[in-house]
Amino acid sequence: MRNDLFNTGKQESLKCPFCGSENLARIIYGLPNFNEKMKKDIDKGKIILGGCCISDFDPHWHCNNCKRYFNFGEENGYN
Ligand SMILES: [Zn+2]
Question: How far is the CA of 1 from the centre of ligand 1 (A)?
């Protein structure tokens, strides 16, 4: 399960529901186990650390193109 968070192969097939960009970042909550791959993904904008400041809406994805936050259907029913 944890490994799915960093499955960038899957991530690259996803598109922003607003602008269609594939330049997306996965938002990670809590304290993940940092490793070299994760640091590189953060540097490339593939991963954002969510921290603790999110309220009702907990987005799991951020579009680097239009700067919006969103979820995909498998997580909260978004279509
Ligand atoms: Zn977008």
Answer: 26
Handedness of CA 19, 20, 25, 26 (dihedral sign): positive
Neighbours of ion ligand 1 (CB under 5 A): 16, 18-19, 21, 63, 65-66
* C-alpha 17 to ligand 1 mean position (Å): 7
DSSP state of 56: S
Q: How far is CA 20 from the centre of its chain?
A: 15
Instruction: Spell out the domain ranges in the chain.
Output: 2-76
**pTM more than 0.90:** no
What tens-digit pLDDT sequence spans the chain (79 residues)? 444 555 544 544 689 999 999 999 999 888 778 899 999 999 999 999 887 555 666 888 999 999 999 987 654 444 3
